[in-house]
Specification:
This protein is α/β, with parallel strands linked by helices and 663 residues long. It folds into 4 domains: 3-110, no CATH class; 123-216 and 408-423, NAD(P)-binding Rossmann-like Domain (Rossmann fold), CATH 3.40.50; 218-396, 3-Layer(aba) Sandwich (Rossmann fold); 439-661, D-3-phosphoglycerate dehydrogenase, domain 3 (60s Ribosomal Protein L30, Chain: A), CATH 3.30.1330.90. 30% of the residues lie in helices and 22% in strands. It contains 20 helices and 29 strands. The strands form 7 sheets. It has a 7-stranded parallel β-sheet, sandwiched between helices. Strands 21-20-22-23-24-25 form a 6-stranded mixed β-sheet, with helices on one face. A 5-stranded parallel β-sheet has the order 9-8-10-11-12. The protein is globular and about 85 Å long. The chain starts with a strand and ends with a strand.
């Protein structure tokens, strides 16, 4: 132990002989403390291979910006290890340079002190296999630790030394992982689309941005859907298994032709539209159902948008490409299968949860569904004794939708660029969680943020299926000058409210415009002066959806738009306008809206129906156009009424229309 400018050199014990390392190219002998001390005291590193020195700060001294760490005999792996050890120390030790020295022909090598700060590269943990092209992008700007197959405990042990984590679908990034990171983890990248394996609430709470790679595997998923379609129609998997069992059964595996058959594409997003293009190339007649897809986009590729019932009842093949949301969960159930054409064939490369798998087995057994080809399942992997997987009329693959060389490389590059950009502080278009808003602005606007999302969510539920949303106008009424009112987060939350109920996209201030553009939404903002106090950010917010039909005609304003408006009262968001009807109801609960003839006893009749169904009513409000004329009754309920209860409400003679809004 020899002091050098107030610092100490601590010779760590070395093993008797180090194993040969392909990156090192040399073997190590025992290091002698005296030799180390002599070398350091003379500031020289000698060529003989028995000397290895690390210059570290002593426990009692503060780190120096000119400290350096030096290794003999070309040890990049050791250099990286020391960087990580220094960064992980508590308190962290800043080391401005780690230099590696190698003997050159017996010459003496001098270790010069570092002359300035060198920015520490971020450390990125890759916990599942990632394409080499993506790894190369990462290695150019970060230290990359590829550790595949980690247990949950091993992941929690590694994560405190990492600035970013990249996963696929197999790694569960739970609250425990974020807690173990102790604030260092800044970005989680999901190499793919689905983020079910990442705890978004915990990520947001711990200030960690989550990004995904939603575009690179679109074509691969569409191609796999077409592959399953053709393989199922011609019994390819079953015939292959038969031949490998030593059989020759030509007559057993007679298939069906695709030409002239009707294919219903359920969900007309990126993958669904690509499947439609390819199916038309096979000579199929293609229809599609997506209540929120623009009709002009479908027409551009020769596809007709139809209702859900028409799609399932008239098609020979059904290909599923819808997101898994509370609305679509198990949407294909016994009742749905019963309404299909007998002998229909189903393909699913989207989300397993949209099919009730037990119901599908029953439909296959009865012949209602002739065949199914599945790449996704409710539980993955499914049970080995799964009746669905083992069914002779089912073709299955283990979630291979994105499994092509090109897609894997594309996803790897996309997620690598997104993670590195986020680490540099750039706004990520594919971010899927917390809004990035200054704390002061967020604090002031927080009740309006809730109002904005509720209005967007309410407005989209008033749109009739199949009409497609194209234009959104947001009107802010405020006493403040435009430059004193930051509406970015309000616009983002309205976009979130409109898009999230009808898709699997997570929307925030980072990706709101991107998400809107992807769905063909044109969003405009207008500010209307208000004679009030500038201490109050906003008087009201209006949301207009243009060129759409409404399932609740009263929501249509005089200008022909679906229009809703709201205010914040005592910190609580309120709905104040539906179409041309003034109302005043809290947006804290689910709402039933009824248009009726204004007459006595209506509140009691509807209240009795809900009470008999054990549905708790927490408020009622009535807005009307005049005495004994048209009125809107808004009813706040704690529970969602069942179909029978809602039907009874609709059968009340004076009620002309009603709608249930899940907020």
């Amino acid at each position: 132990r020899q002091p050098i400018k107030g610092r100490h050199v601590s010779p760590a014990p070395f093993p008797e002989q180090w194993e040969r390392n392909g990156n090192e190219g040399s073997q190590w002998s025992p290091a002698l403390p005296d030799a180390m001390a002599a070398a350091v005291s003379s500031k020289a590193f000698l060529a003989p291979p028995k000397v290895a020195v690390a210059a570290l700060p002593s426990p009692s001294s503060s780190p120096s910006p000119n400290s350096s760490v030096c290794f003999r005999s070309g040890a990049p792996l050791l250099a990286r290890s020391v960087r990580r050890l220094l960064a992980a120390a508590r308190p962290p030790i800043s080391c401005s340079a780690v230099s590696v020295s190698a003997p050159v022909g017996g010459r003496e090598l001098s270790a010069a002190p570092a002359t300035g700060d060198v920015e520490r590269k971020p450390t990125i943990l890759v916990s599942e296999k990632l394409g080499e092209a993506g790894l190369e992008v990462l290695r150019g700007l970060a230290d990359v630790d590829c550790a595949y197959g980690l247990s949950h405990e091993e992941l929690c042990a590694k994560i405190p030394l990492c600035d970013a984590l990249i996963v696929r679908s197999g790694t569960k990034v739970t609250r425990e992982v974020f807690e173990a990171a102790k604030g260092r983890l800044k970005v989680v990248g999901r190499a793919g689309v689905g983020i079910d394996n990442v705890d978004l609430l915990a990520a947001t709470e711990f200030g960690c941005l989550v990004v995904n790679a939603p575009t690179a595997n679109t074509v691969a998923a569409a191609e796999h859907g077409i592959a399953l379609l053709a393989a199922m129609a011609r019994n390819v998997a079953q015939a292959d298994a038969s031949m490998k069992a030593g059989k020759w059964q030509r007559n057993k595996f007679v298939g069906v032709s695709l030409v002239g058959k009707t294919l219903a594409v359920m969900g007309f997003g990126k993958v669904g539209s690509e499947v439609a293009r390819r199916a038309k190339g096979l000579g199929m007649h293609v229809i599609a159902h997506d209540p929120y897809a623009p009709a002009d986009r479908a027409r551009a590729i020769g596809v007709e948008l139809v209702s859900f019932d028409e799609a399932i009842s008239t098609s020979d093949f059904i290909s599923l490409h819808m997101p898994l949301t509370p609305t679509t969960s198990k949407i294909f159930c016994d009742d749905t299968f019963a309404r299909m054409k007998n002998g229909v064939r189903i393909i699913n490369v989207a989300r397993g949860g949209v099919i009730d798998e037990d119901a599908l087995v029953r439909a296959l057994d009865s012949g209602t569904v002739a065949q199914a080809a599945l790449d996704v399942f409710t539980e993955e992997p499914p049970a080995k004794d799964s009746k669905l997987v083992q069914h002779p009329n089912v073709t299955v693959t283990p979630h291979l939708g994105a499994s092509t060389v090109e897609a894997q490389e594309g996803v790897a590059i996309e997620i690598a660029e997104a993670v590195l950009g986020a680490l540099k502080g750039e706004l990520a278009a594919t971010a899927v969680n917390a809004p990035m808003v200054p704390a002061q602005v967020l604090s002031e606007l927080s009740p309006y943020v809730v109002l904005a999302e509720k209005l967007g969510r309410l407005a989209v539920q008033l749109v009739a299926g199949g009409s497609g949303i194209k234009g959104v106008k947001i009107v802010y009424e405020s006493a403040r000058d435009p430059e004193d009112l930051d509406t970015r987060i309000l616009r983002a939350m309205i976009t979130k409210g409109i898009i999230e109920p009808i898709s699997s996209v997570f929307v925030n201030i980072v990706n709101a415009d991107y998400a809107a553009k992807q769905r063909g939404l044109r969003i405009s903002e207008e500010r209307v002066p208000h004679d009030g106090s500038v201490d109050v950010p906003l008087d009201s917010i209006q949301v207009h959806l243009s060129n759409v039909e409404s399932k609740f005609a009263s929501a249509i304003s005089d200008s022909g738009d679906v229009r809703v408006a709201g205010k914040v009262k005592d910190g609580i968001p309120h709905l104040t306008l539906v179409g041309s009807f003034s109302v005043d109801v809290s947006l804290e609960r689910n709402i039933i809206l009824c248009r009726q003839v204004d007459q006595p006893g209506m509140i009691g009749r509807v209240g009795n129906i809900l009470g008999e169904a054990n549905v708790n009513v927490n408020f009622m409000s009535v807005g009307r156009t005049g005495h004994r004329k048209q009125a809107i009754m808004a009813i706040g309920v704690d529970e969602e009424p069942d179909k029978e209860t809602l039907q009874k409400i609709g059968e009340v003679p004076a009620i002309e229309e009603f709608v249930f809004l899940n907020l």
